[in-house]
């Protein structure tokens, strides 16, 4: 049993998360508990209390005590808690310590000095119960996000902890990745373990969660059994910062909005060095100018490759894009397109938001660069931050700075790579809003995403990629809506089978 | 109220050391290769590597709050040089200079940026210790060929041997490169890392 | 369960050797090449040591590597001596001399190259554990290996972003340095933080002896190699002491 006894915590460095105030509750064994709330509300901080990262890793002021049965987590060193609590984090790429899947799974056991035979038998058990035989022997750097998360889960499972803590584990995953994750959590629940999950996306946890705790500004605002929670309306859920279970009917099925021109892709081909066949193979695709195109498909199907080729970042891509009567080859496309990358930290170079917007853009050479840049910033609600360093802003704000650079670049095509992964409802709406606003300026935008709600909010065209080919594309007519609904609702089907 | 302070190097510190050592080694090897390939630039490698690595190393030094991490980095560098067959002087001098640097940092209580620049410049000297082998090896080669070339040639060569300043000049260039690189690093740290709150 | 963890015998890929023997070979080649003076019996010893990596590469099937190293060695053993008389001494000091010094390093470097190709990180960490290296040594080393590919990945992504931004070309060196390093370091520090947190919640800091699933044992081949190394060193000492 986990007991949180009048605990408050404030970080020394505020950027690590939200503070919490006077939390007082107990969590019984064997329950699956969902923690939700807006970003910065303190739910991640709460999980860090349980796995011991606070106070051993994150320094700050802690009052009150945290107990797991008889172990006082807040006073004992971290490694003692490690044997009782397994943690899975949000970002798949910064969780694994070794390079090979097999060594990663046994990493924790090795650290704790278990005998070799015991480690190997636990390895066998974990691998067979999680069905990850296919992942063995592979390099972690070459796995997809979902596969990495499964290995991360296996790695903590090998310790056979009683409690598992997961911090937004589904953020970077596609539909099948989430399905696998759900199966693993169901497995743990069956084994009687306590599972605590922080999440924004709720739908995949229906039927698994027993209890829901809602955080707001560092306090627990609601604490109720899950069945009661699922009865909430989408509006109520949105107010708690959550994403509602998906309903694609909200999509604007906008017929006939006939635009004058289109982007035509011809002969788009790209091949990875070690692949036997082409990884991307698009013969002929036409996309209307000025539309917001959702680029959908499973991870590994070729969406990112498509985006990079479109933006001219892959030198070996052959193929031409025709736009407004001009043909753009790979090296020309860099001037046509701008990509807002998934990891926005790769694109922030300057020491102030204003400078970042002007960097490398056409505006800097104009008459009044500062005024022009300020205009752009104002449209993205960033004007008050213009003198601040981009890295001092929150994740959502940094993304807006990247979008500002995209706008300032003056290019006609903007590509977004997973702009809303890990964002709560409010921030997702913001992003959708900005994209919508930009659509009005005649730019063509491509949004690579797994986020059904984002698609419903702002996309009016879609492209579905499978195995490197564009399988379907078009505007939202009835048939397309059905197809996409079925694709996104895959998790729903899974739940129906299970229930 | 619980506050944690730990003496000794924790796992987190060791991983930080691992990270910055990796950055240092990658940078050092890449810069050395570039300098080494261009003729006549081989001897400038010490200056350029010290200069360019100033930014990451100043970030490292700014993060260091305990004794021992600098030592780890330059010991690793020295050992790599040995395994690569480039000589043991980088290990010997590297460790000595790293120790000096450790004491300098400690004297400033791990808070003084200017002392950190000095400490970094000193480590640059040590890390490039293998330059000794380059120079003395060159001189040996020169002597061997001169010996087979006749008296006149030998005389000219002996004249060049009195260029005792070559070796110290190289170390000085490493030190100056380190100072410059350190100050650039300090400026960049203030401009970005301190301003954004990362440091 | 079929897994690489169960391997107890080093295979062809590891050159049938324990990592410690390979390390010993590296150090021996380095030591003897550097300290030896090419006189007397050392001439033969040094040639043998130079040839060993080439043989290993051939056994591993890496023909191109062995060709490359042989060519490099041959080049640096002959060309500088041919050029030197025709160039002024200063040039020889700064240029041709360097080439000659490089010659000395080629055997050791190829040995190191061989070590890297045939040893995986877990094997290396296990070897360190068997040599009773303290955590202060093993943790930085293993995390270093973990970060090398990450540095490559992040660098490449930032380079793409810079290309897109049309900035940071060689023409603006100060800016290039800043824009190359700052996002890279920010990103690496962030990844490093996450990584430490994850590793610590899996007991990285635990006191007591760490188990290595990778099993290392000295076999006949290893003993042979170690005897060979000892012999090379002994010959070196004898040569210096008795002028063989």
Task: Describe this entry's structure for a reader.
The complex is a heterotrimer of chains A (499), B (199) and C (244). Chain A has helices at 43-50, 53-56, 78-82, 101-111, 116-130, 145-157, 175-190, 226-230, 234-239, 303-310, 330-336, 353-358, 369-379, 395-408, 425-439, 452-458, 478-488, 490-498, and strands at residues 2-11, 20-27, 32-36, 60-68, 71-72, 85-88, 163-167, 194-198, 211-216, 219-225, 262-270, 280-288, 292-296, 318-323, 326-328, 337-340, 413-417, 444-448, 461-466, 469-475. Chain A is of the alpha/beta class and 499 residues long. Chain A folds into two domains: 2-245, P-loop containing nucleotide triphosphate hydrolases (Rossmann fold); 250-498, P-loop containing nucleotide triphosphate hydrolases (Rossmann fold, 3-Layer(aba) Sandwich). Chain A is globular. The relative contact order of chain A is 0.11. The model of chain A is unreliable at 491-499 (pLDDT under 50). By secondary structure, chain B is mainly α. Chain B is elongated and about 65 Å long. In chain B, 48% of the residues are buried. Chain C has 244 residues and is an all-alpha fold. The mean pLDDT of chain C is 82. Classes of the chains: A alpha/beta (499), B mainly alpha (199), C mainly alpha (244).
Q: Estimate the helix proportion of chain C, in percent.
A: over 70%
Shape descriptor of chain C: flat
What's the main sheet of chain B like? none
How many domains comprise the coordinates of chain B? 1
Instruction: Count the E strands of chain C.
Output: 0
How far apart the termini of chain B lie comes to 25 Å
Unreliable parts of chain C? none
Rg of chain B (CA only): 19 Å
- The SS-based structural class of chain C is mainly alpha
Largest sheet of chain C: none
Weakly predicted, low-confidence segments of chain B: none
Kindly, what is the distance between the CA atoms of the first and last residues of chain C, rounded to a whole number of angstroms? 57 Å
Rg calculated over all Cα atoms of chain C: 23 Å
The overall pLDDT average of chain C reads 82
